[in-house]
Design a protein that fits this description.
Number of strands of chain A: 0
Radius of gyration of chain B: 22 Å
Number of strands of chain B: 2
Oligomer: heterodimer
Order of helices and strands of chain B: HHHHHHHHHHHEEHHHHHHHHHHHHH
Shape of chain B: globular
Strand order of the largest sheet of chain B: 1-2
Helix content of chain A: over 70%
Order of helices and strands of chain A: HHHHHH
Radius of gyration of chain A: 24 Å
Largest interface: A-B, 70 and 78 residues
Helix content of chain B: over 70%
């Protein structure tokens, strides 16, 4: 028996686990609170099981590679190999998480220009002038709109918390 | 009525009032183009400035500000697959692929013209509908709103392409996500994991940005391309897009009427109007199951006409009954009261000229917004030829700030990253994202109205005539869509 387990089956498994968790966690709630989560959870659980069974069945019995399904969503360029996609995605999400941690530690006022400049210089490999000009532009837009006009409430960054607690 | 219409127009035709209307259009356009903001933010900022202003000028400015963000929200939706406001989520599905094919100009041309026509149709219907629709709108109680919610959810079947099972699971998952937070029936906390942030549930802005903006930017960066995959010279222009609107005028007209109708119903939410219009177009347009989602201009025309027309509809319950159907309408209601105008049935008798000033302001603002947007179209279309590595950090900063301003909490960013990761995996693993978003949008509404219906009417709510009609339409719609989908799949297999 030749079974070709596809990575995307893991996502179906994830949906199954989430549905099961929905049902289990809602079980002991009062009727009014649990009714809707249970209906949705059970529906998702049963359908996820059907989907998973179908994918496993197909992985055993399919003779030719499966055709790309039409999901009604935006299309993807499938010509790139999955290893290259995983590497580049890892790189992109690493930058995003880096930006997030920078915001958390230093706050938006440092993180916005820092992320913009470093990304443009190191990742996009742009020249000094373009990187600096775009960074200044983005920073002015950020301060002008979100701070001066919208008066957003900014959380206290980790470094400020540490400095004030040491005083 | 005709006299009041002329009076309303005359009141508006004054240099100072037109100046303030133009200011409203400018601010509304800017807010629509920046993801996460929109008319509510603009109203909240400008409302204090209207104290002491001329009544007509203040109303014209605020109406213009709320009418036009749905015109400019197309810009980030088409270029970056980032919804400018919640009303442009469905535009992404075909608008962004058009930009990828080098047809950003065409998508903008079609979107702006159809937005203008939709907005003007909405204004005309607002003017005509107020006296006629009063009894019908008052007949819409919790059971009818629940039935409409179910009708909205049934769009999942249409938005799932050839994977209806995955679509339904994704829809259920969206409904589950919408239940996070405080339960309205018992006051219990659901899946808040002992955090204060989750007691109010997940923010719609965060979910829609995470589900679409992050995955699309990620994929463009991964592919290392420009937004447009074809050379600059091959970009088709605005004129073609505008001609497309006239070619598909019947679709534009249908979706505008649909938008007005959805806007009239308080509480259904402006966020679903574009999805319902998109689903309607996908279901009724010839060959849509093969071309929608790949850059079909009809997939831009349908949601864009509906989301601008909705504004006229949303003003009906606000003006005629003093019942605001959304946050922006609630703020507008406050602005009217500041100016000494009490919306409600009396307004239609005592201040009919003010009602028509609002109608004229809506129509003129939409025309002005389209003019401004068209002037910007060609420079904007050129952005799609810029390398994505340059645009990605700038767009991501705006996306992060847009998500953060939802509740000004660091947890907004954690949610954004989590939903972004989920959205990207869904896309890569062949799971449709629109059903998840639709489930999330309608989940709270459906749960609230079913409980109210059962408590107020017992099982009797099921037999209310309008509920039966809506359910019948829903069943017919889903049945028709499944049959058509089956036919399309068989045809694809035969080829």
């Amino acid at each position: 028996m030749n079974m070709r387990f596809e990575a995307k089956t893991l996502f179906t498994l994830f949906m199954l686990v989430v549905s099961a968790y929905t049902v289990v966690s809602a079980w002991d709630w009062p009727l009014g609170t649990r009714l809707f989560p249970l209906i949705m959870g059970f529906t998702a659980l049963i359908l996820s099981l059907c989907q998973l069974s179908w994918e496993l069945y197909r992985s055993v019995h399919a003779k030719s590679p499966e055709k790309r399904e039409e999901t009604g969503d935006l299309q993807i360029d499938w010509r790139m190999g999955s290893r290259a996609v995983a590497l580049r995605a890892g790189n992109f999400f690493a930058w995003l998480f880096g930006f997030f941690f920078c915001i958390w530690i230093f706050g938006f006022f440092v993180a916005v220009p820092l992320y913009s400049f470093l990304y443009l210089k190191l990742q996009a490999k742009e020249g000094w002038w373009l990187s600096l000009a775009l960074t200044v532009g983005v920073f002015l837009f950020f301060v002008g709109l979100f701070d001066k006009i919208l008066h957003l409430h900014w959380f206290s960054p980790l470094i400020a918390e540490l400095l004030t607690s040491n005083k | 009525m005709f006299e009041a219409m002329i009076d309303g127009f005359t009141m508006l035709m004054n240099a100072e009032r037109m100046f303030f209307l133009t200011i409203g259009v400018f601010i509304g356009m800017a807010l629509g183009a920046i993801p996460g903001l929109g008319g509510v933010v603009g109203l909240a900022i400008l409302l204090p400035f209207t104290f002491g202003m001329d009544k007509t000028a203040a109303i014209a400015m605020l109406i213009a500000l709320t009418s036009v963000p749905t015109t400019s929200d197309t810009i980030p939706a088409v270029l970056f697959a980032v919804p400018g406001t919640v009303g442009s989520q469905a535009t992404i599905l075909d608008g962004h692929p058009m930009a990828r094919k080098g047809e950003a100009g065409r998508a903008f041309g079609a979107a702006y013209l159809t937005s203008m026509l939709g907005g003007v149709i909405g204004a005309i219907l607002l003017g005509l509908a107020i006296p006629v629709l009063k009894p019908l709108v008052l007949y819409f109680a919790a059971p009818e709103l629940f039935a409409l919610g179910v009708m909205g959810i049934s769009m999942v079947a249409i938005l799932s392409g050839s994977v209806p099972l995955k679509g339904i699971i994704a829809g259920c998952f969206g409904l589950i996500l919408s239940m996070i937070g405080t339960d309205m029936q018992e006051g219990m906390l659901r899946w808040t994991f002992d955090t204060i942030y989750l007691t109010d549930g997940l923010s719609l802005i965060v979910v829609s940005l995470g589900l679409f903006a992050i995955p699309e930017i990620a994929d463009m960066v991964i592919e290392g391309s420009k937004i447009s995959a074809v050379p600059k010279a091959a970009m088709k222009g605005v004129g073609q897009g505008m001609r497309d609107v006239f070619t598909h005028w019947w679709l534009m007209l249908r979706c505008s009427f649909l938008g007005v109708w959805i806007g009239i119903i308080p509480g259904l939410g402006s966020a679903v109007v574009d999805w319902i219009a998109y689903g309607h177009a996908k279901q009724t347009c010839k060959g849509a199951s093969q071309t929608f989602g790949k850059g079909d201009v009809r997939g831009v025309i349908a949601p864009e006409s509906a989301n601008n027309a909705k504004q006229g509809g949303a003003l009906v319950p606000t003006l005629a009954f003093g019942v605001p159907g959304s946050a922006s309408m609630a703020l507008l209601l406050g602005a009217f009261m500041i100016q000494g105008i009490q919306p409600g049935p009396e307004m239609l008798i005592k201040n009919l000229d003010v009602v028509y000033t609002i109608v004229w302001s809506t129509a003129i603002a939409n025309i002005m917004a389209t003019g401004m947007a068209l002037l910007l179209t060609n420079p904007l279309a050129k952005i799609s030829a810029v390398r994505i590595q340059i645009l990605a950090p700038l767009v991501m900063i705006v996306v992060f700030l847009a998500a953060y301003q939802a509740t000004s909490s660091l947890a907004d960013l954690i949610s954004l990253l989590a939903v972004g990761g989920l959205g990207w995996l869904m896309k890569r693993c062949g799971w449709p994202r629109p059903p998840l978003l639709l489930g999330f949008l309608l989940g709270k509404l459906i749960e609230r109205y079913i409980f109210i219906s059962v408590k107020a009417y017992g099982t009797g709510w099921l037999f209310r005539p309008l509920v039966l009609v809506i359910f019948a339409v829903t069943i017919l719609t889903v049945g028709y869509s499944l049959v058509q989908g089956g036919k399309a799949r068989r045809l694809t297999r035969m080829r």
